[in-house]
Amino acid sequence: VLCVSQDFDFFYFVQLWPGSFCDTKQSCCYPKTGKPESDFSIHGLWPNYKDGSYPSNCDPDSGFDLSEISDLTTRMQGSWPSLACPSSDNMKFWSHEWNKHGTCSESVLNQHEYFEAALNLQKKVDLLQILKSAGIQPNGRFYSLKSIEEAIEEATGHTPGIQCNVDRSGNSQLYQIYQCVDVSGSNIIECPVLPRRSCKSTIEFPSFRGQTTDLSL
Ligand code: 5GP
Ligand code: 5GP
Ligand code: 5GP
Fold first, then answer.
1. Which residues, in sequence order, are CB contacts of 59 under 8 Å at separation 6+?
2. How many CB atoms lie within 10 A of CB 3?
3. For atom 4 of ligand 2, which residue has the closest CA?
4. What range defines the domain where residue 73 resides?
5. What CDD domains would the database entry show (predicted)?
6. What angle do CA 97, 45, 5 make, to 5 degrees?
């Protein structure tokens, strides 16, 4: 049996709230595959060290190969859309995530396993449902950071990392949720280190609704 060393300690599984990506000064663009659902979407599955640092771009020879994940792309369009401008077919985002992060966990997960692991993690924990059950809805209201952290901790058994950004009016808002995952890519664990705090104690949970290209409202 080959013993392959792991060159990282855990993964961050990071999901973003599309409403908070889109209502910033920078705005957003829906992918050519259509307007994303009103749900958290995957940003990435990122190998990390427990001191908070992380490896990146670990294997320039391992290019993103769409043919290896052809059975996953329909699910990925729904769960892992790219919202950056200009509108894309998501491929640039996925290949960026593979090249920057995925290649650093190749000792454990090949390309197919890597993307499938992220899809399965998202399915395993329905963050929006967890928050809604705790009365925390994407309706533009403000909620205490603590209530958000506690709802997720109670439902999953582990404290999440919450990252905020700022909307056009300067409000601190729920942007990304970090969960920690063991090196196999399948089990949520307690975070060895949480991302730097970026939220006010009370934060907005903006709505995300369908709209035209004019996002300036
Ligand atoms: P930002 O500066 O927008 O938070 O992050 C920019 C990029 O740096 C992210 O998209 C991600 O690729 C990488 N990054 C930021 N923080 C972390 C981290 O704590 N761990 C890992 N592995 N990557 C990170
Ligand atoms: P990171 O390096 O932070 O993992 O990934 C962010 C990079 O992917 C940025 O260069 C960004 O332009 C690109 N990107 C493409 N689509 C998206 C998206 O929907 N969300 C985010 N956060 N980045 C995206
Ligand atoms: P990157 O250089 O990694 O493309 O992006 C740098 C930062 O800008 C990241 O935090 C990424 O999420 C953000 N970003 C990139 N493109 C867009 C965009 O079209 N809209 C918004 N709101 N943020 C973006």
1. 103, 104, 106
2. 4
3. 97
4. 10-205
5. RNase_T2_euk (cd01061)
6. 100
CATH number (domain holding residue 127): 3.90.730.10
Any domain includes 4: no
Q: How far is the CA of 26 from the centre of ligand 3 (A)?
A: 8
- Does residue 83 have its Cβ closer than 6 Å to ligand 2? yes
Residues with Cβ within 8 Å of 77's Cβ and at least 6 positions away in sequence, in order, are 31, 33, 34, 90
What is this structure's pTM?
Answer: 0.93
Domain contains 212 = no
Closest ligand 2 atom number to CA of residue 41:
19
Provide the annotated active-site residues.
Answer: 43, 97, 101
- Give the chain's radius of gyration (CA, Å): 17
128-158 pLDDT, tens digit each = 999 999 999 999 999 999 999 999 999 999 9
Query: Quick one: which ligand is closest to 43's CA?
Result: 2
Number of domains in the chain: 1
Q: How high is the ipTM of this complex?
A: 0.93
Query: CA 117, 123, 124 angle in degrees (round to 5)?
Result: 85
Quickly state the pLDDT bin for 117 (edges 50, 70, 90).
very high
Q: Tell me which residues have their CB closer than 6 angstroms to ligand 3.
A: 21, 24, 26-28, 84-85
48 close to ligand 1 (CB < 6 Angstrom): yes
Give the Cα separation of 166 and 71 in Å (integer).
36
